[in-house]
Specification:
The structure holds 2 protein chains of 2 kinds.
Chain A lengths: L3 E4 L2 E5 L4 E7 L6 E6 L5 E7 L5 E4 L2 E6 L4 E6 L8 E8 L5 E3 L3 E6 L1
Parallel strand pairs in A: 2-11
Antiparallel strand pairs in A: 1-3, 3-8, 4-5, 4-9, 6-7, 7-8, 9-10, 9-11
Chain B lengths: L4 E3 L2 E4 L5 E6 L6 E7 L5 E8 L2 E5 L7 E4 L6 E5 L8 E8 L7 E2 L3 E5 L1
Parallel strand pairs in B: 2-11
Antiparallel strand pairs in B: 1-3, 3-8, 4-5, 4-9, 5-6, 7-8, 9-10, 9-11
The chains are: A mainly beta, B mainly beta.
């Protein structure tokens, strides 16, 4: 079974600081997805990474994919309170079944 | 933007009862999924559905679970005899083509008492 691990599981950071969330996965995949989940809410798609070396940016978030290392990063620049949420990476298998990471709960402190 | 809709948003049931969770996927999508999330844990795959049949299912999706697409728009998840450990948020998702992201519904919070 494809395993997807994220670290850290919990992240508390001050506003204005930078940080990176890591997502490792166990088998070959050339696609990776990042989702955001607010408490009690559904999953909101953030980024779709479809090839090795893909980099996507949206506001203060930037995601990258290294398929050879089986690693994706989600970089947060100059964090603001609105970014507080849980972030999940997801990797599909050949049947397009998404395997989700353990999630990173981010709290941005004013 | 088109969205996946789920009903009900909350369902409370007694252990041993049957429940049906309903979903209306995005209209031109072809791939349908059910996932669940136990409180505070990661999102777990249950089942995928394509071309009117199950394409893949996880170990969680045992004989107590079934899915159906009774008409051209609805996609349902039935749990025949609920257990306490079935309490979770159940998400329906749909996708249009293989490489596209999945669109998730807002979820049904199932509480089994």
């Amino acid at each position: 079974e494809l395993k997807v691990e994220q670290n850290p599981l919990f992240l508390s950071m001050q506003e204005g600081k930078n940080y990176t969330i890591y997502c490792n996965y166990s088998t070959t995949s050339d696609r990776l997805y990042w989702y955001r989940q607010d408490p009690g809410k559904s999953l909101e798609s953030l980024f779709v990474l479809l090839s090795n070396g893909a980099v996507k940016q949206e506001g203060r978030l930037m995601a990258s994919l290294d398929t050879k290392a089986r690693l994706s990063t989600l970089h947060i620049t100059a964090a603001v309170h609105d970014l507080s949420a849980t972030y999940f990476c997801a990797v599909p298998n050949t049947g397009n079944q998404f395997y989700f990471g353990t999630g990173t709960s981010l709290t941005v402190i004013p | 933007e088109p969205e996946v809709t789920q009903t009900p948003s909350h369902q409370v049931t007694q252990m041993g009862q049957e429940v049906i969770l309903r979903c209306v996927p995005i209209s031109n999508h072809l791939y349908f999924y059910w996932y669940r999330q136990i409180l505070g844990q990661k999102v777990e795959f249950l089942v995928s559905f394509y071309n009117n049949e199950i394409s893949e299912k996880s170990e969680i999706f045992d004989d107590q679970f079934s899915v159906e697409r009774p008409d051209g728009s609805n996609f349902t998840l039935k749990i025949r005899s609920t257990k306490l450990e079935d309490s979770a948020m159940y998400f329906c998702a749909s996708g249009g083509v293989t490489y596209e992201k999945l669109f998730f519904g807002s979820g049904t919070q199932l509480s089994v008492l």
